[in-house]
Amino acid sequence: MNKARWILGTFLLSSVMAFGFFGIVTASGFSSEDSREGNEYSGYQKIGSQITFKQDNLYNEECGACHLAYPPNLLPVQGWQNLMGGLEDHFGENAELDKETFAHISNYLEQNGLQRGKPSKMSKMLRNIPDVAPARITELPYFIRKHDEIPNRMVIRNPKVGSFSRCDSCHKGAAKGSFNEDMVSIPSFGRWSD
Amino acid sequence: MKLTFKKVIWSTAIALLFFFQTIRASDAIDKLQEVYQKQGATSFSAKSGELLWHKKFNNRSCTTCHSSSVRSEGQHKRTGKVILPMAPSVNSKRLTNQKKVKKWFLRNCKWTFGRVCSAQEKGDILQWLKEQ
Q1: Residues A192, A185: contact at Cβ < 8 Å?
Q2: What is the pLDDT of residue B11?
Q3: Do A18 and B21 touch (CB under 8 A)?
Q4: Domain chopping of chain A, boundaries
Q5: Helix (H) or strand (E) holding A79
Q6: Residues of A in contact with B81 (CB under 8 A)
Q7: Chain A contact set for B64 (CB, 8 A)
Q8: B96 vs chain A: nearest CA distance in angstroms?
Q9: Is residue A63 within 8 Å of A93, Cβ to Cβ?
């Protein structure tokens, strides 16, 4: 009799533990979906007291897989739209997204991208842009002007950099949207002073 | 009814057994492999998976970005971004989300071999990776 009780008790206890754990596993498997709602409230990235841009988990995960998740306030909204229009051939890579994720990220970039008449810490990136906004930050006239004195040996021929697209190799605060000239450090060459 | 030490140990052991059984059964890899079998794959071979992982095609292979050891960090060939190790024994977050695995199989098979991978090939690779 006692034996039967113990077997029953053990069985019930194990089942409860097993189901509980199953719940945890399945719940965490869907965490990326859940976080979509949470994103709205994940707050602004603050540098000093200046509001730069809003972080978004889904954007950081999807658009930060192959490179730095470029802060959205580095390109005009139109440039983002051009880029999002061609994700199946994204500079030679396939970066396609499912419909839901695509809509979420497009919306995020439209809300946080640069726009004339809308104040932003990075508004200077809008200077002299051509009628059709480029889909590359490195092709914006302001970007080119700010970087044209840096010699190739520090960039393309520098194995620790390789390309201007790798903002974070020289600007340590890039992921947070911080590009302060005084904080630049070029790998193997150190601080930049002009 | 006496609560003996033996009984407590015994019931805890059984409970733990169930516990680990469910971790395995709810594994994203197992579920994906089931799907691949429904798509016509037979039993999966870790050996074939390993060979495919290292196979060179037009000078490209999975190791181009994931490095020659799945226990080490890799680096994206074009952007230079660091890619964390692929082996679940080193990086427990690996291969835990079905949607993510499917997405990258699609992208990376096309990038590496210029075509999609078959259900058999994907199942073989997972069979090998999960033991790493």
Answers
A1: yes
A2: 73
A3: yes
A4: 57-191
A5: helix A77-84
A6: 66-68
A7: none
A8: 7
A9: no
**ipTM surpasses 0.85:** no
- What's the pLDDT at A53? 81
Cβ-based neighbours of A130, under 8 Å, separated by 6 or more: A141
Under 8 Å between Cβ of B91 and B97: no
Q: What mean pLDDT is reported for chain A?
A: 82
Which of B10, B29, B103 to substitute to test the interface with A, most A CBs within 10 Å? B103
Q: Are A129 and A141 in contact (CB under 8 A)?
A: yes
Q: What is the DSSP letter of B117?
A: P
Residues 6+ positions from B96 with CB-CB distance below 8 Å: A28, A29, B28
Nearest CA in chain A to B17: A14
Q: A67 to chain B: which residues are within 8 Å by CB?
A: 76, 79, 81
CA dist A33 and A37 (Å) reads 8
Query: Between residues A116 and B48, which one has the greater pLDDT?
Result: B48
| Amino acid at position B39, single letter | Q
| Domains of chain B in sequence order | 5-130 (1.10.760.10)
How many residues are there in chain A?
A: 194
Q: Which residues pair with A46 in a beta bridge?
A: A51
Type of residue found at A126: L
Whole-structure pTM value: 0.83
Q: Is B109 on the interface with A (CB under 8 A)?
A: no
Of B36, B29, B22, which is closest to residue B87 (Cα–Cα)? B29
